[in-house]
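Hi there,

I know you've been waiting on this one. I reran it after we fixed the sequence typo, so this is the corrected version. Both the input and the resulting structure follow.
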Amino acid sequence: MFVQLISMAAIAQWKPAGDNLKSKWTNDVNVNNVLPDYPRPVMVRSQWANLNGLWKYAITGKSELKIPENFDGDILVPFPVESSLSGVQRKLMPDELLWYFTEFAVPSDWKNKNIILHFGAIDWQSTIWINDIKVGEHTGGYTPFSFDITPFLNSKGKQKMVIKVYDPNFDKENTVIDGYQARGKQTLHPAGCWYTAQSGIWQTVWLEPVNKKHIEDVKISSDIDKSMLYVELKTTASKNEDWFEAVVVDNGKQITVGKAVAGEKMEVYIPDAKLWRPESPFLYNLKIKLHSNNQIADNVDSYFAMRKISIKKGDREPSRIQLNNKDYFNFGLLDQGWWPDGLYTAPTDEALKFDIQMTKDLGFNTIRKHYKIEPARWYYHCDRIGLLVWQDLPGSDVALDVPKGKMEIERSTESERVFFLELTQMVEYLYSYPSVVCWVLFNERSGQFKTKEVVEYTRKSDNTRLIDAASGGNHFPVGDMIDYHFYPEPKLYIYDQSSGRVTVQGEFGGIGLILEDHTWQSDESWGYGLCNTIEEVTDRYVVYGEDMLELIKLGLSAAIYTQTTDVETECSGLVTYDREVMKVDTDRVREINLKISNSLNKE
């Protein structure tokens, strides 16, 4: 059962703010039904309530810690306050706080249930009050968190919620700011490859009713060599008394069942396992039930894939990335995940899926999600559609480039603490999504520090995926890749056969084409090697593709083209920022891309 809860402000007038470029989905945003799709596809319950909609907001000075008595106006949640779709489009400065207020009702048939309040993501530090009671805080701008708010709810009537947000964004004109958080490409003075900063709630806010004993999180992985599925649960159950079972379903047919005590890692043999790969993205359904006192205390629906990502160390041949124990050239797009109307937040789920499907239709098999972590539904679409994901940790301390003559920067104790906190949050959040095959830890030396320790920490946290320690950065003998960037044409720049690491080109391309009616600010638009026509872009792209085929023979194992879409003034996308115009001949691009994607692939 899905419930859309309309806030007290829903009857107010709303429209997108400003006259900036919009996407073709702007008009599909329904103020009374904002992003209604289930927000956590890897762990589904039938009952939930969406709190997205019109809330109240206020912006105050950083020192004004008291909850405001009056608010400035309405804001459409979950769009960042700086975005057009928020209806506000107001820059939040480092010395300011952003406040939210809304009221909601708990459905009457949820009586005697524990009520969990979920946030997809709030950028960056947030504090939450329910009915004037502080229920908790959270630090981290890209990953979900939740609170059990049951003890703080009124027995009847409306419930009040207030949220305080602090988000000191990067100012490249004045780098002396508070905070060391992951910001990605955000800046208060956007230009070039730095884009509009954003703050506050930017993913779905929702409620969920559960029993006192319930499943809090699932952790799913597989081993195709042993035909095994592994399931671990985080629960409120007792390890000494309660147990869970996982039922594996293939196209509606139950094929096997596993059982384990709560708190133990469950192992299930998968007979005749069907393997997941981009060309055949097969997903098993998984029904998980928590048992307590001879009753089912909780049950959730999930899914998983049988797939393996690894490195085959070469002897006389180059080392190669392998998918399911077969050489597999990873060829994809650098995907920034920005929207002209919603900034970090896609206007609709159809829009969120559009870039992924376009990438697949163009013949790519990989996406490098660059300096941003997406909502869970984005990874779900990658799982279903079939694309490998290289996931960047959004850059932090990006103002601190490595000094000339040095390999790394020195961070403060607080900066290191925040870095490892947000790295941990990312790995835990995305662990169960099979499309994610690689962690990219640093990019182009920005904020690069303690590379060996960071790689070791990541490997201990997740040994099922590849690690790209430094994409286009300073290389250490750690991780699985030597990753270099070269613009615009591809080149084989670094090669180290003896290390067992593969050579990859983490960025190249960026062929520019400025289409005046589809740009953010045409007078500042730019790209690498600007072209004048779609035909010219396509011709150059095909030449680069033919060069790529030769580099693969010489030892290249992966390549990422810059980029999926134009972003603000950066006009190097294969499609315009508004997603209205393809900037290449799709048939010719798909033809050369499939040759590249299949160059090592034997299936």
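Quick highlight: The longest strand covers residues 295-304.

Best,
R. S.
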